[in-house]
Fold:
Amino acid sequence: MTTTERAPAPAVGPRTPPNGGRRPLAALAGLLAAAVALGVGELVAALIGPQSSPVVAVGDTVITLTPEPVKQFAIATFGDKDKVALVVGTLVLVAVAAAVLGVVALRRRWVGVAGIALFGVLGALAAVTGPAGGPLDALPSLAGAGAGVVALLLLLEPLTALPPGRGVPADDGVPLLVRLRDALGAGDRKGAGLDRRRFFLAGGAALGAAVVTGGGGRLLLRRFDVGGARSDLVLPAPASPAAPLPAGADLAPGVDGLTPLFTANRDFYRVDTAITVPQLRPADHRLTLTGMFDAPRTLTLDDLLGRGDLIERDITLTCVSNEVGGGLAGTARWLGVPLGPFLREHGVWPQSDQLLCRSSDGMTIGAPTRSALQVEDAMLAVGMNGEPLPVEHGFPLRMLVPGLYGYVSACKWLVGIEATTFDAVDAYWVQRDWAAEGPIRVAARIDTPAPLRRFPAGRRAIAGVAWAQTRGIAAVEVRVEDGDWLPAQLSPEVDADLWRQWMLPYDFAPGSYQLTVRATTADGEVQTAERASPFPSGATGLHSILVTAT
Ligand SMILES: Nc1nc2c(c(=O)[nH]1)N[C@H]1C(S)=C(S)[C@@H](COP(=O)(O)O)O[C@H]1N2
Ligand SMILES: [Mo]
Structure:
């Protein structure tokens, strides 16, 4: 005979107190705990350095691990705001996770504790393994997680409060550790009630703590800013100034919507992996030459500025990620040490075919030694449009090699050059399967009219820019619908490294039009219509837009 054991019928206890709304409050507790954790993380980071901030460290790691197509999508979608989008996205994910942890921890406190601890460990790992990371960089994430755990337990406690007389009294004279120990076991309390008043008091305190620590941390982090030191830096006059511009060099004043010949620093496109921009003090800055040099050396910024051979040149810089018709190109008047003479002076070996440039944030950019030696006007740049490099554009030192995309030449926040070979080492982007050599492809872009624009019929300028650095632009032609290629007027040639503006007045009858542009280089290459995506070596194809005259 078998017996089936039956669980005793649950005792009918006192009616449970009104607990409705406990879960949303638990979610809120999770959010507030996360806010406290991030706030404390920022505050501790302010003592150590910007790279140790949990948000920055995790964001940096996400960038490092993100597959190239996603990165390309982010650059194409968010442009210069790609890092902002990343940080916001990371915070949204953290918020969702925190709310879920809060709800789960209502019943199982240890899950909440373990969850926050896990985030802390991940943040610490991200910070320590970052390119500029050291063991101390673990502290902000760990301290933040600790504060988050304390906040979560204290916030959840009033949600499962015991009736008076049972358990540890909620306030007054009970040591924090005892309360925490009690709070850890509070999830399974039977017949616990909800003390709304105490929850909101604790919540207010948590919010205050998050704002004060986070805000204070951000303020304190400003002491790492080098804006002041940058303003104080006086650049020497160039030994070789830029060639004077011919009259009428810039067509933009006469053509509405046309890109100016020179891009203002604040309008200059920015592409990099830095969530917080490296802050390098000129006095502390060092450039170290290593590897295949007869005379490996460490130079100060003064060594470079005092050489007396600075050149000033007008150069158009272009990003390999630029889509056909895109805006990731800009022109500036750069000031810097001529790279070829500098490298020869330090005896770079003929066996070296790659210069591995290192940025203070760990980025590596591999430039062909041959180009660095031979391309005229390649430089170690210190100035941009008459001022020291803006911090976002590499202050105090970056490299420029006309004719090469930025990812294989234009290393910002430059602190090291290792003369090596392409066989020996892959730079950052090459590890991510971008081409090891990146000559800029010839391109032309229509700036005006804007795509899909409607405008009154009549005469109107079609205009834009075209570039083929080191080779120069010889012609730009425009095709309206399937008509003949019509030659556009070009801005005067200033230098092959500089883009040229082009312009074609056209009489638009009412109707819709497809406008297409193509450039021809001074050495005879006609821009191909064949479409290629930016990955892995730069986009090709003709910029083509639809407009309507009404
Ligand atoms: N340290 C560092 N340098 C860098 C990069 C970077 O991510 N980190 N990006 C490169 C790329 S892809 C380009 S196109 C140029 C862009 O320079 P800009 O931001 O001054 O326009 O910088 C290059 N130098
Ligand atoms: Mo780039």
About this structure: The longest strand covers residues 511-521. Residues 252-431 form a domain with the Sulfite Oxidase; Chain A, domain 2 fold (CATH 3.90.420.10).
